[in-house]
Design goal:
By secondary structure, the protein is α+β, with helices and mostly antiparallel strands. 38% of the residues lie in helices and 48% in strands. The protein has a single domain, classed as Nuclear Transport Factor 2, Chain: A. A hairpin with a 2-residue loop joins strand 3 and strand 4. This is Nuclear transport factor 2 family protein. InterPro entries: DUF4440 (IPR027843), NTF2-like_dom_sf (IPR032710).
Length: 143
């Protein structure tokens, strides 16, 4: 009986770990898609992966909603040339994921060229089958 209970415990732990790993990978995949969509101006992907209630805090202190963030890319006020994910870690809490990482961003903001490393934290919530980013906060690191 003890070996059966031990086996069940190992099986449940393995299943929970596999679920966690799968969820972490799914969130990182969405994060990569979002970065790529910002660079390529793929508005369909941005509409899908950004939550309607998004709060986007830029490293310069400016804040955007989903609508104002996408519109700033459409208008050319915000233009991303490259975003490279250097580090990332995902913590899952049920249907919520907290991502912390570092990325290298080459962009233009109102015509001013930016080439900087950012430390960021963002939050994703799983809405049905789709993970959507609902919060972003970043700060500049010394290059």
């Amino acid at each position: 009986m003890k070996s059966f209970l031990f086996f069940c415990g190992v099986l449940i732990s393995s299943f929970a770990y596999a679920q966690s790993s799968t969820g972490e990978k799914a969130v990182l995949d969405i994060e990569k898609q979002r970065f790529e969509a910002q660079v390529t101006k793929n508005y369909a992907v941005l509409e899908k992966v950004l939550g309607d209630d998004l709060i986007y805090n830029h490293s310069n202190g400016n804040q955007d909603t989903k609508q104002s963030f996408i519109q700033s890319i459409r208008d050319g006020k915000q233009s991303y040339d490259a975003i490279e994910m250097l580090e990332s870690k995902v913590l899952l809490y049920g249907n919520t994921a907290v991502v912390s990482g570092i990325c290298q961003v080459k962009a233009a903001n109102n015509g001013q060229t930016i080439n900087t490393k950012l430390r960021y934290t963002d939050v994703y919530v799983k809405k049905g089958p789709q993970w959507q980013m609902v919060a972003w906060q970043s700060l500049r690191l010394a290059n």
